[in-house]
Structures are given as C-alpha cells and as structure tokens.
Design goal:
cytoplasm; binds adenosine-5'-triphosphate; binds fe (iii) ion; 5-stranded mixed β-sheet; binds magnesium ion; acyltransferase
Length: 347
Amino acid sequence: MRVLGLETSCDETGIALYDSKQGLLAHRVYSQIALHAEYGGVVPELASRDHVRKALPLIREVLHEAGLTLAELDGVAYTSGPGLVGALLVGACLGRSLAWALDLPAIGVHHMEGHLLAPMLEDNPPAFPFIALLVSGGHTQLVQVDGIGRYTLLGESLDDAAGEAFDKAAKMMGLPYPGGPALSALATLGDEKRFKFPRPMTDRPGLDFSFSGLKTRVRTTILECAVDGVLAEQDKADISACFQAAVVDTLAIKCKRAMQQTGINRLIIAGGVGANKRLREKLRTTAEALGGAVFYPRPELCTDNGAMIAYAGTQRLLAGEHSDLAVSVVPRWPMTSLTPVDCVAVN
Ligand code: ATP
Ligand code: MG
Ligand code: FE
C-alpha cells in the first residue's frame, strides 16, 4: 500500500510517500522558522497561510522524486491533531479532498503517534513492547507502548515541555529562534559543572516531570552573571551547558525508572528534542547499563515531518480504519484514547 502523508500541525509543512513493502519513498519538509523568527514564536494565522502556499508544490516534488503520479496512490494520511487548529485544517482539508477526488481512503493521524512510531522507519526497528520518551515542543511524556494504539501514559510534564524549556531558556539569553538547537550548539563550548542546576522531581517517586523551575534558575543565573545587563559569551555557553545537562540527566533518570518499573528495556526517543546529541548519548548508556537498547529516528525525523504521518496512517489504513468524509480536526486529543491495531508493515 502506497500512502501520501501530510503534516501541517504547527510550523513545518511535511509531505511524504510511504510504501508498506518498500518503505519510505520520498519526503520533504518545509520549515517556517524564518517566517516566525521576528516574532520569537509561531504566529498561528501566518502558519496556516504558509501551509496553504507550500503543501501542493511539496506534494508535486515528492511525487516527482518517487517517480509516481497521484493515480498510483492507495491512500492519504494527514495529521488531524493535536496542534494549531488553523494549521491542522489546511492539511485535513487538502488530504480529505484529495482522497475524495481520487476515490481513496483517507485517515486522520494523531501527531504524537506519528512521532512515537518514527523509529519504525529506520533499519532495525524496535520490537514491541517498548518505552517511549516523547520530547517535543509541546509534549514531554513517558509512554509504555505494547503495540500500535496500545499506549499507557506512565508520566508527563506538569508544566513546560522539554522543548519549550529549551526554547524559553535560549530566548532569555538572546539566542536565535528556535532556541533548542542554538542552545545545544552553544552548550558544547560551555562548562556544565560551573553552576549547580536542579534535576527537578527526581528526589521523589513517580515518572512526572517539571521544567519551569529550571527555567527560573536560568533567569536568576543570568541576573547574577550579567554585568550592566550584558551576559558574556562564556557565561551563555556555561549556562547552556548546565541547563542542557540538567534536562538530559532528569530525562535519563526518569527513563531508567520507567524501564525498571515495567521490566521493559527497549527505549525509544522521539520528538524534536530527540535530535539532541547529548540526550541520545546519555540514553544510550542508560539503556545499555540495564542490558537494553535505545532506538531513535534520524534527526530530521525527530522534528515534524510527513514520513511519520504516512507511516502511522499506513498502519491504520491497512488495518481497515479510515476517516469519514467530514473534514475534522482535534486540537486537543489524548493519545491514550486511540484504538489498537495490529502492526502489518515492518518498515
Ligand atoms: P509537538 O510535537 O509537541 O506538537 P512540535 O511539533 O512543535 O511540538 P517538534 O517539531 O517535535 O515539536 O520539536 C520542536 C522542538 O524540538 C523545539 O522546542 C526545538 O527547540 C526542539 N529541538 C530541536 N532540536 C533540538 C536539539 N538539538 N536540542 C534540544 N532541543 C531541540
Ligand atoms: Mg516545529
Ligand atoms: Fe511535533
């Protein structure tokens, strides 16, 4: 089965073609980062309009790259939530209408299920069950995954998501938007032992997270170090290194706890923060110390993309699921409410 995947939940237009026998045929991502940079965050109305501009040209590019025509598709998958309602509606209207015009089944995909299944697009995908650490701009969750649609939420952030904390800490230091990648690049030049940052909520049982206190710690450290309101480059690098180490350690401690608690030693990392090298390395050693292994998508499939939506949609379409003719999106949608399906395609 050959499926076109459309991702438009936030500020990336992601389009991909996935084949259940041949794997990923082509994928393209257009990021709106430059568009939103001057506002320091995503402006929802601008995001929707830019998806309108970019989606069709990207579909043409992806079909061209795969050497296929629309007539050779077997289904269409689009992100139907969670996300920005206007942005979601662009992908849902386009995907649903395209499928109707081509007389194909369409499926609305849960964005976080897409992130969670992205490691399945790589060689040597993890077998079920596994523990998933979902770390993105809007979510920080630990999930026990017993199969597609079989999700148990083990813990989540009570306030900021990990990616959001990275972005806000970076913004406080005046780093370029979006802050996560900029902060982690600067962290490589810093001394992560200079300041003692907390590892929030690790001194008590449970698998929930909280990152807002760490953000406050960054703010007070900036105030302590700044001279006449100006922060030296080395101070920025040291704060970045200490902040990153604190987030990574906290995530690793909770992942270890989740693996010990469930007896499952396969761990996957997904979502934009999963592109962070320090986190990938730390979780690899954490899982290996427990006799397990860690799995993650290539960095470009950690952040938003159409490939993960095409993959998740294919699994659900193959299981006989499809959406009705209405164009509907679900801006808030708990992943645990999804229906279980049997995994048919391997990669
Ligand atoms: P959600 O998936 O929860 O709806 P989103 O789609 O906006 O949110 P993603 O695209 O998955 O989030 O990830 C974007 C986030 O990942 C941003 O917060 C960004 O700063 C962060 N990020 C990307 N690369 C890195 C990195 N190398 N280190 C730390 N954070 C990173
Ligand atoms: Mg994004
Ligand atoms: Fe995302």
